Amino acid sequence: MGIFSRFADIVNSNISALLDKAEDPEKMIKLIIQEMEDTLVEVRSDSVKAIADKKDLTRKITALEHQVSEWSDKATLALSKNREDLARAALIEKQKLVDIINDLKNELVIIDETVDKLTGEINKLESKIIETRAKQQALVIRNTAAGNRRNVQKHLYKSQANDTMAKFEQFSRKIDELDAEADSYAKSAQKKSLQDQFAELQAEDEIEKELEALKQKLNKEADSNK
């Protein structure tokens, strides 16, 4: 079943509304254009047939008009020969042909109207197809642009993610460096503390020796005074 049920549906259709309702606008617009083109082929075929009928009918009318002229000449000839009976018979045949010609001319008027109508329909269909093709191109451009924007956003997101990871790794390295530096200071502080402790022990030992020496000196002086 087609999208359109008759010619009027096509020329009066709102293509944008049809596309808005479609799940797949690109597929839908291709189907619309295909049906329009198929309809255009049918209308053109009808138009060609109508034009052919018009030409055939015109030839018949011309031939009959030629016969009417001949019967008129025969009637004139019969009267000139005092054959009124033949003249009357010739005029009767002439009138029969005139009646036929009038009927054919009425048919010709109808055919002319049909050709004009079909020509108008062809023009409307061609304009509608041009309009729809323009919408198709706009749809393709819009979809392409949307795809490009999606790719750009995807790329930007990926770049941002990469930048974030790089910054995270940079911060991690910085933290590792700070931890290492802190460990180094801690070890240095621990080493310095041990040195200080041994220095203090050495200082205390010197003080004890000096104190002992002073005691011995005082004892000697006391013994000498006795």
What features would you describe in this structure?
- The chain is built from 4 helices and no strands.
- It has 226 residues and is mostly helical.
- Helix 2 runs antiparallel to helix 3 and helix 3 runs antiparallel to helix 4 (84-225).
- The radius of gyration is 58 Å and the shape is rod-shaped.
- It starts with 6 loop residues before the first helix and ends with a helix.
What would the keywords be for this entry?
single chain, mainly alpha, about 230 residues, about 0% strand, 4 helices
Question: Brief overview, please?
Answer:
By secondary structure, the protein is mainly α.
* Gap from first CA to last CA: 146 Å
Mean of residue pLDDT? 81
**Spatial shape:** rod-shaped
Q: What's the gyration radius in Å?
A: 58 Å
Q: Tell me the quaternary state.
A: single chain
Structural class: mainly alpha
Low-confidence stretches: none
The counted number of beta strands is: 0
Residue fraction in strands = under 5%
What about the largest sheet?
Answer: none
The helix/strand series, from N terminus to C terminus, equals HHHH
Number of helices: 4
Helix content: over 70%
